[in-house]
């Protein structure tokens, strides 16, 4: 209309009347500007008209759960919540990695939020490792030939790079390669010199691989004590102080204090200051760093635990099957290995050492006090300082004495590339980036409310990102305040290609703190000899949903999982009854 010639004069008169004269401004300029304004107004009207009034919520018919198609098409269900307002500043360099290193997520429509379970590998790490293997020839490092020397050089570099990444002085720490963090923890458990009057102190907030060390401690007569966390899944400093002060024997009777730097259940970061305080009171300290180091810097020149366990796939996604135990060298002389294997010894004989030409029986000397199992003598040489000398074999020195069999030498070659990748990002920036994502996630979860005022989400543990990592555990609650079984939520998330996790995450202590009545009922079932039913009950009423963010997580991932959880508004638990089948019960 503005450009029609018959209206040209009228338009020009209006312009002359209402638009101030500006040098160079023509009627055409004004027409174009008005066209632009009109276009924006039309777009705005279209947006409003297609949005409509979305305040109502469609109830799911009783006995019928929503399927993935319902979640995607039912705008009324999702829009009645305030969608997450992503407001925390993210590191732009880390954000850019989504397109360059993790593009497969968007290509495959994957919403991956299980970073505490495992980090995703950057594409460049795989390419560099494959290129290395294709360009070289690498043999068993236990041999002495050119291919063996090539492998040994790669493994030595990986070992040095690991120590450097954690700022650990190689004169003070050993890097012992294991199959994973659990393998590292087993070495500590089986080799720590527990005796009668020793103590094993650990938080209830611990992974089962740390809990399992108690079996070694009990079998040798040590006392096992759990420090209870509060309902926020943190531990009060004064409670822990009193328990630490109970170690009246000091280092004359070795006692061990074990705790996670970060909870794999709640994401709570426990104070690293406890390391020094416990050591002052005569404890050896085991720090489980598996959930901490993927997104937080650990400086072993500032804090010096005696043992540190980790898995590298949790840090940079690849390779799997490789972990490490960082052990202070001051601990090596007291460690008592209950057996030996290929690669851990410098000398072994199957005959009486005094009669090398005759066969003889070898009777192992019991170690410590017999409990759930007996341990062979600590077989070690005086030179290696790993315990009393056994003339039948001599252990190797340093890390070699603890690396059973051939290490995963081809996979170890990838560690240097992974560490280089993480170093380039700056772990301090990674920590801040993950904290910003976590804060957005918690804020968005807290905003989900049923129409009757009941919250849709119960956040288990702290409801802020203060002193916590990128792990948030929740329960989804129905309109009546009843927990919708986490395994049901996980099944429905799977249909939408959203990867989260349900269960207690190998951390039963936190579950016991949060659901004490459920655990009492489960223990009664165990006493009645029905462990399968006890497990089924646990999956239903003593479990949680874990959402965890990491380096590749985008704002859209958070929006997507919040939109999914919003779909549970005004539903009731019985609507999902047909999905409540325990996977274990079926077998």
Keyword list:
587 residues; alpha/beta; seven-stranded mixed sheet; five-stranded antiparallel sheet
Detailed description of the structure:
- With 587 residues, the protein is of the alpha/beta class.
- Helix content is 38%, strand content 12%.
- A hairpin with a 5-residue loop joins strand 12 (471-477) and strand 13 (483-484).
- Helix 8 (146-165) packs parallel to helix 16 (415-425), helix 9 packs parallel to helix 11 and helix 19 (508-514) crosses helix 20.
- The longest helix is centred in the first third of the chain and has 25 residues, at 27-51.
- The chain is globular.
- The N and C termini lie far apart (74 Å).
- 40% of the residues are buried.
- Mean pLDDT is 84; it is low at 50-81 and 356-389.
Q: Which outline best applies?
A: globular
Mean pLDDT score: 84
Distance between the termini: 74 Å
Oligomer: single chain
Number of strands: 16
Widest beta sheet: strand line-up: 2-8-7-6-5-3-4
Helical fraction equals: 25-40%
Major β-sheet profile: 7 strands, mixed
Radius of gyration: 30 Å
Structural class: alpha/beta
Percent range for β-strand residues: 5-15%
Total helices: the number is: 22
Q: Low-confidence segments, ≥5 residues, pLDDT <50?
A: 50-81, 356-389
What's this entry about, in short?
This protein has 587 residues and is an alpha/beta fold. It is built from 22 helices and 16 strands. The strands form 4 sheets. It has a 7-stranded mixed beta sheet, sandwiched between helices. Strands 11, 12, 13, 15 and 16 form a 5-stranded antiparallel beta sheet that branches. Strands 1-14 form a two-stranded parallel sheet.
């Amino acid at each position: 209309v503005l450009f029609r010639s018959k209206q040209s004069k009228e338009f020009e008169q209006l312009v002359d009347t209402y638009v101030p004269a500006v040098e160079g401004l023509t009627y055409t300029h004004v027409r174009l500007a008005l066209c632009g304004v009109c276009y924006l107004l039309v777009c705005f009207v279209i947006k409003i008209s297609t949005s409509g009034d979305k305040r109502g919520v469609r109830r799911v018919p009783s006995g019928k759960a929503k399927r993935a198609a319902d979640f995607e098409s039912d705008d009324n269900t999702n829009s009645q919540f305030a969608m997450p307002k992503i407001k925390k500043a993210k590191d732009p360099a880390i954000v850019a990695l989504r397109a360059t290193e993790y593009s497969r997520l968007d290509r495959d429509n994957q919403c991956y939020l299980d970073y505490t379970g495992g980090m995703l590998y950057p594409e460049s790490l795989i390419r560099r490792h494959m290129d290395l293997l294709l360009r070289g020839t690498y043999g068993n490092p236990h041999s002495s030939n050119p291919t063996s020397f090539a492998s040994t050089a790669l493994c030595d570099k990986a070992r040095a790079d690991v120590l450097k990444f954690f700022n650990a002085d190689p004169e003070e720490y050993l890097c012992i390669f294991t199959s994973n963090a659990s393998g590292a923890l087993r070495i500590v458990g089986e080799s720590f010199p527990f005796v009668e009057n020793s103590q094993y102190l650990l938080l209830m907030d611990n992974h089962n691989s740390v809990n399992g060390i108690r079996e070694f401690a009990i079998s040798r007569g040590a006392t096992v004590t759990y420090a209870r966390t509060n309902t926020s899944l943190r531990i009060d400093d004064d409670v822990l102080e009193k328990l630490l002060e109970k170690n009246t024997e000091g280092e004359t009777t070795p006692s061990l204090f074990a705790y996670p730097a970060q909870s794999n259940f709640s994401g709570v970061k426990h104070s690293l200051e406890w390391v020094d305080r416990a050591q002052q009171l005569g404890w050896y300290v085991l720090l489980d760093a598996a959930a901490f180091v993927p997104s937080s810097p650990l400086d072993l020149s500032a804090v010096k635990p005696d043992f540190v366990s980790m898995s590298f796939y949790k840090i940079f996604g690849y390779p799997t099957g490789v972990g490490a135990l960082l052990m202070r060298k001051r601990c090596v002389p007291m460690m008592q290995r209950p057996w030996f294997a290929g690669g851990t010894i410098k000398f072994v004989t199957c005959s009486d050492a005094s009669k090398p030409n005759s066969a003889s029986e070898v009777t192992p000397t019991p170690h410590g006090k017999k409990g759930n199992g007996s341990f062979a003598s600590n077989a070690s040489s005086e030179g290696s300082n790993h315990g009393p000398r056994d003339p039948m074999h001599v252990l190797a020195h340093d890390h070699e004495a603890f690396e059973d069999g051939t290490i995963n030498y081809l996979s170890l070659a990838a560690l240097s590339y992974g560490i280089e990748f993480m170093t380039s990002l700056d772990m301090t920036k990674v920590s801040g980036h993950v904290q910003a994502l976590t804060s957005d996630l918690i804020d968005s979860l807290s905003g989900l409310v049923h129409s009757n005022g009941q919250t849709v989400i119960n956040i288990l543990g702290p409801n802020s990102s203060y002193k916590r990592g990128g792990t948030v555990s929740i329960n989804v609650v129905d309109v009546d305040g009843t927990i919708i079984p986490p395994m049901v939520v996980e099944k429905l998330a799977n249909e939408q290609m959203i990867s989260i996790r349900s269960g207690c995450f190998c951390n039963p202590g936190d579950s016991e703190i949060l659901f004490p009545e459920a655990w009492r009922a489960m223990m009664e079932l165990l006493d009645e000899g029905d462990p399968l039913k006890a497990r089924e009950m646990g999956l239903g009423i003593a479990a949680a949903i874990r959402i965890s963010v990491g380096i590749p997580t985008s704002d859209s991932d958070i929006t997507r999982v919040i939109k999914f959880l919003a779909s549970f508004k005004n539903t009731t638990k019985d609507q999902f009854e047909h999905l409540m089948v325990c996977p274990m019960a079926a077998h």
